[in-house]
Design goal:
CATH topology of the largest domain in chain B: TIM Barrel
Number of helices of chain B: 24
Number of strands of chain A: 4
Number of helices of chain A: 3
Shape of chain A: globular
Number of domains of chain B: 3
CATH topology of chain A: Histidine-containing Protein, Chain: A
Distance between the termini of chain B: 22 Å
Helix content of chain A: 25-40%
Oligomer: heterodimer
Structural class of chain A: alpha+beta
Radius of gyration of chain B: 25 Å
Strand content of chain B: 5-15%
Radius of gyration of chain A: 11 Å
CATH superfamily of the largest domain in chain B: Phosphoenolpyruvate-binding domains
Number of strands of chain B: 16
Strand content of chain A: 15-25%
Largest sheet of chain B: 8 strands, mixed
Strand order of the largest sheet of chain B: 1-8-7-3-4-5-6-2
Number of domains of chain A: 1
Structural class of chain B: alpha/beta
Shape of chain B: globular
């Protein structure tokens, strides 16, 4: 399955604003997309509560995965959001 | 009772009539079932959540700015697919829509609350979404706070959610008073952003009769009910005087006669560094490292730890930064350290450095990361052990620190046995720092988490001052510095008393630094010593406070 592995650079981690933007972007897509902390259980990337529950902090690595039509483009966008400082 | 006491989280004085905002949504009772048409009930739940999401977005659009972002994040919670699936599953099994929404949120609520910090503070946002959805389902009126008023009012509530405050302005609200919440709760943040005084954790506030005139002091945390006009006037003048007096004092901490007192900040991570610098902290007296670990399934890697430590150390070149090793257990459980099968008395169990007996690798990793960070920054790093009770423990801890290449090892004084024997502990401690909160908890056998026992947590208790005095005396004998890093250090009057007891440094929340610096600058060391003697001669916390203040004439002028 196509995936992206990125390190979260934002000081607030994948909380607050970055989390909301991430989930909003994922939710617009029709395909299934998940996000996990490196080595952890994946959660639905369209679920704000799921993403917050991961408690991704600055410096953590996350793995974003999706499969299907347009997966590569979506993953690129999500990887950009997750790794934005 | 015409005075209520809470925690001041946004300084200034506000006066107005009280408006008690009660948004009590009854908990749908466990076992509530729907009539049998699961599909219709599920649709009802979905519609309610969508209605809440739209309402939150509408409010966000009206409010704009930071509030809009918060409200849009809340709308995402209402539309969360994971939540929808849980609710659907519960309704399918016969649970009523209201109860299903309640339980569906419950799981996430627990996860966020456990993570603490920023995520913990989001619990209030989550509860607000949940309550709004239940209100829709139960046909309860949607309560809102007044936004257009002739005279600004004092908004009193159990707690406030972003959606409640989004449309408020200082023209409408003179002050906030909430029964719950803390310095990082939404109410505190929004109040500071609005420049409106606020008092949180104010017990009894919602019992105040509607329309009662209230005078709110967002610095002292005092709320006066129906005060005379001259008191309102005096409070306003004092607030203005305090602003200018505090602004006038800067630089390193010292008493009026030039006796230096190092004034430092308590921080939980890199996030708190800007405030510490802004308020002129002379380094960090307590870096709580548990925020790096909380909410994790496993300990953060040494690399991740090193990055976090380094970021803090680099902000204080040439200054002292005291890092407390992981203080888990009791109220801060961690799955990889603390056992889940519950101790009968967690506060008296395996917590703080005691856990390292079982998990020495966690301490070793932390010290390695810290030593690496220290070698890459110019700060003077000290390591401090929590929950030390005996000299043997202190000696063992210091040895491990030195082995890791960290020469300065100290001990938190929070267990009475340690306070009584600092001279012995000096064999394994280069410095001491009194943690007044835990020291009070253990000296008075009063759990910090039991609200009904807060009077026993009062740092003005003469017995607590006695313990601090003994700890300092023992440290002096062995020529070791002894500071204070509990809440007590941030109370300007108590800070003077502690200096009078011989304390050499005070570490506190950064926002408390200006008032403490100003209070010390107005009093000589002798005055502080006399205030300390008077406080220790008193027989209650209340009389200790009054007796000390009688020797600290400058406080009145600061409006403190």
């Amino acid at each position: 399955m196509p995936e992206r592995q990125v390190t979260v650079k934002a000081e607030v981690g994948l909380h607050a604003r970055p989390a909301a933007t991430f989930v909003q972007t994922a939710a617009k897509a029709t395909l299934d997309v998940t996000v996990a902390k490196a080595g952890g259980q994946p959660v639905n990337a369209k679920s704000i509560l799921g993403v917050l529950s991961l408690d991704v902090r600055q410096g953590d690595t996350v793995v974003i995965s999706a499969e299907g039509e347009g997966a590569e483009e979506l993953l690129d966008r999500l990887a950009d959001i997750a790794s934005a400082p | 009772m015409n005075t209520l006491t809470g925690v001041g989280v946004s300084p200034g004085v506000g006066f107005g009539t009280g408006y008690v905002f009660a948004r009590e949504i009854p908990v749908p009772p466990p076992g509530s079932r729907h009539g049998g048409d699961a599909a219709a009930e599920r649709e009802r739940a979905e519609r309610a959540l969508e209605q809440v999401a739209q309402d939150l977005e509408r409010r966000g659009a009206l409010a704009g700015g930071e509030s809009q972002k918060v409200l849009e994040a809340q709308a995402l919670m209402a539309r969360d697919p994971g939540l929808a699936a849980e609710v659907a599953g519960l309704v399918e099994a016969g649970t009523s829509a209201s109860r299903a929404v309640y339980e569906g949120f419950g799981h996430y609520r627990e996860v966020l609350a456990e993570a603490g910090g920023y995520l913990g503070a989001r619990v209030a946002d989550l509860d607000d979404v949940r309550d709004r959805a239940i209100a829709v389902l139960e046909g309860l009126p949607a309560l809102d706070v007044p936004t257009r008023v002739a005279e600004p009012y004092v908004l009193v509530a159990r707690d406030l959610a972003p959606a409640d405050t989004a449309l408020l302005s200082p023209d409408a609200v003179a002050a906030f008073v909430t029964e719950e919440g803390g310095p990082t709760s939404h109410t505190a943040i929004i109040a500071r952003a609005m420049g409106v005084p606020a008092v949180v954790a104010c017990r009894g506030a919602t019992a105040v009769a509607a329309g009662t005139p209230m005078l709110v002091d967002g610095a002292s945390g005092l709320v006066r009910l129906a005060p005379p006009a001259r008191e309102v006037e005096a409070a306003r003048e004092a607030a203005a005087a305090r602003r200018s007096a505090l602004a006038a004092v800067g630089g390193p901490g010292a008493t009026a006669d030039g006796h230096p007192v190092t004034l430092q900040a308590n921080i939980g991570g890199p996030r708190d560094v800007p405030d510490a610098l802004k308020y002129g902290a002379q380094g960090v007296g307590l870096y709580r490292t548990e925020f790096l670990f909380l909410g994790r399934r496993e300990a953060p890697s040494p690399e991740e730890q090193e990055a976090a430590y380094l970021e803090v150390l680099r902000a204080f070149p040439g200054q002292r930064v005291v890092v407390r090793t992981l203080d888990a257990g009791a109220d801060k459980p961690l799955p990889f350290l603390t056992s889940s099968d519950g101790e009968p008395n967690p506060a008296l169990g395996m917590r703080g450095t005691r856990l390292f007996q079982v998990h020495p690798e966690v301490l070793a990793d932390q010290l390695t990361a810290l030593a690496r960070a220290a070698s890459r920054a110019a700060a003077q790093v000290g390591v401090m052990a929590p929950m030390i009770a005996t000299a043997e423990e202190a000696v063992r801890f210091a040895a491990v620190c030195r082995e890791a290449g960290l020469p300065s090892a100290g001990v938190m004084i929070e267990v009475p046995s340690a306070a009584l024997r600092t001279a012995d502990l000096a064999a394994g401690a280069d410095f001491f720092s009194i943690g007044t909160n835990d020291l009070a908890q253990y000296a008075f056998a009063a759990d910090r988490q039991v609200g009904a026992l807060t009077a026993l947590q009062d740092p003005w208790q003469p017995a607590l001052l006695d313990l601090a005095a003994l700890a300092v005396a023992g440290a002096v004998v062995r020529d070791r510095p002894c500071g204070v890093c509990g809440e007590a250090a941030g109370d300007p009057a108590l800070a003077c008393v502690l200096v009078g007891l011989g304390v050499t440094s005070l570490s506190m929340a950064a926002a408390s630094l200006p008032a403490v610096r100003a209070a010390l600058a107005l009093h000589t060391r002798d005055e502080c010593v006399r205030a300390a003697q008077a406080a220790r001669a008193a027989e209650s916390a209340e009389s200790a406070r009054a007796a000390a203040r009688a020797h600290l004439p400058g406080l009145g002028g600061l409006g403190l």
